[in-house]
Design goal:
- Belongs to the class I-like SAM-binding methyltransferase superfamily. TRM11 methyltransferase family.
- Its EC number is 2.1.1.214.
- Its main location: cytoplasm.
- With 460 residues, the chain is of the alpha/beta class.
- Helices cover 26% and strands 25% of the residues.
- Strands 2-1-3-7-6-4-5 form a seven-stranded mixed beta sheet. Strands 10-9-8-11-14-16-15 form a seven-stranded mixed beta sheet. The chain has a two-stranded antiparallel sheet with strand order 12-13.
- Helix 1 packs across helix 7 and helix 7 crosses helix 8.
- The protein starts with 7 loop residues before the first strand and ends with a helix.
- The N terminus is likely disordered.
Length: 460
């Protein structure tokens, strides 16, 4: 299919981690900045080299100001499966598009990037010298060039079988780098306040990008924990708010999660985490609240809901209630009654979450959450659905040989009506959803079996 002439081809150099999360992130960010995912590349798979068509360089730069899955982006001038094919491609690239970056008053340098192979300095110089046919008129400046160009060579994905010649060679003008440094600067290891389930910084930013979080949005986390997901959204300029059923976590009290520290200190709380990164102005509040019984008035409040519900493994799934509760209901408790926490089935938790998102998200707002699954039994039909929410992406992260969690992104496409609240109960898939309720037992049964197998092997 021919691409519109207004679109320029760009080469994305992707990071080689969280592979399933990369494509949804890039699609979401392009959509956020007014672009559309357009590519002649049939499959991406594990390759670090992606060719995209983007309407403008501004959109390409905005993309790189947000992505943690991409390392760099280049305006693609030529490509080929051999040096000769690359050179022919470069000679066919319009000279008028090259001239603004090659004139006599400019400075430049050429870099070599190889994937899955290391070149000698002599080999690098030889490749650069072979480009002398390009109309470079400026001066070489290796320290502070105005323009940087790159030759990128792809030697495949198998480090045990490196070919003599590259599978593909690319040449392009460097535009910008991604935000990979955020993973280190926001590392949980450096954070004031952490818990047993604090989200990895890289995944937190990926979730915010999947949720299309932007400046002045209001982002909510109903299972806020220590607030790691709020930090990522606040970094992108969103105002953040959260709730959690655990009083001690919300108020930063109780036993510390860090090694060699018994109790949490006075500066260990969610607000202090945002203050640590200069993001306190985006902090709205965090309240003690039960996600199964939201106390919100009817209305649409949030641009995104981004959360990591408890799975019952390291953090228990709880809701408030009375031990005397029975399915048919109970008499109203007196005002002086202090509710105790009861178990909260995963299937109920996710249905409550989807209903809450459908009610409180603005149209076009996104829900991003983690769904734990027992891999041998998993099918796509197990993904909870709602008539107001459209599934955007579903990405897997392995937890063990038999379990994983899936990052689910949904977008509100329809105004919520009262009849939508229980529509999922009419679905034939209700029994599949309830399979999530035994995730904890299946998780630990697999761990027990693995330990038994390892112990048996050690005795033989």
């Amino acid at each position: 299919m021919a691409l519109p002439c207004s679109l320029t081809r760009y080469l994305l150099l992707m990071a080689q981690e969280h592979l399933e999360f990369r494509l949804p992130e890039i699609k979401s960010l392009l959509s956020l900045f007014g672009g559309q995912f357009t590519s002649s590349q049939e499959a991406y798979g594990k390759s670090p080299f992606w060719i995209l068509s983007i309407p403008s360089e501004d959109i390409a730069r905005n993309l790189m100001k947000r992505t943690v899955c991409a390392k760099s982006i280049f305006e693609l001038w030529g490509q080929g499966k051999s040096p000769e094919e690359l050179y022919r491609s470069l000679k066919n690239y319009p000279v008028e598009k090259m001239v603004p970056y090659l004139h006599s008053d400019s400075t430049y340098k050429i870099k070599i990037h190889t994937f899955n192979k290391t070149l000698t300095q002599e080999e690098k110089v030889k490749r650069i010298d072979a480009l002398e046919f390009l109309p470079f008129e400026g001066k070489v400046n290796l320290k502070k060039p105005q323009h940087v160009f790159s030759i990128l060579e792809d030697y495949g994905l198998d480090p045990n079988c490196i070919p003599e010649h590259p599978h593909n060679i690319y040449f392009g003008r460097w535009i910008a780098d991604g935000q990979r440094e955020l993973i280190e600067s926001y590392s949980v290891k450096k954070r004031h306040f952490i818990g047993n389930t604090s989200m990895d910084a890289g995944l937190s930013f990926i979730m915010a990008n999947h949720g299309k979080v932007k400046e002045n949005d209001i982002v909510f986390d109903p299972f806020v924990g220590t607030g790691g997901l709020l930090i990522a959204s606040a970094h992108f300029g969103a105002y953040v708010y959260g709730t959690d059923i655990d009083y001690n976590t919300v108020h930063g009290l109780g036993k510390a999660s860090r090694k060699n520290q018994r109790w949490r200190g006075p500066d260990e709380n969610i607000r202090a985490n945002l203050r640590q990164y200069g993001l306190e102005k985006y902090y709205l509040d965090v309240l003690v609240s039960d996600a199964s019984k939201p106390s919100w008035r009817k209305g649409t409040y949030f641009d995104a809901i981004i959360t990591d519900p408890p799975y019952g493994v390291r953090e228990s799934t709880r809701r408030t209630g009375s031990q005397k509760e029975i399915p048919k209901g109970i008499e109203k408790c007196p005002e002086s009654h202090v509710p105790v926490s009861l178990s909260y089935h995963l299937s109920d938790m996710f249905f409550d979450l989807l209903n809450f998102a459908a009610e409180t998200l603005v149209l076009g707002g996104r829900l991003v959450y983690w769904l734990p699954v027992y891999t041998p039994e998993y099918t796509e039909e197990m993904i909870p659905w709602h008539p107001c929410l459209q599934l955007i992406s579903n990405c897997e992260q392995k937890l063990s040989s038999h379990t994983s969690r899936r990052l689910i992104t949904m977008e509100k496409m329809k105004k919520f009506e009262n009849r939508d609240q229980y529509s999922h109960l009419l679905s034939d898939q209700i029994l599949l959803y309830q399979g999530h309720n035994s995730f904890r037992e299946k998780y630990f049964s697999g761990v027990t079996k693995r330990f038994a197998k390892e112990e048996k092997s050690s005795q033989e």
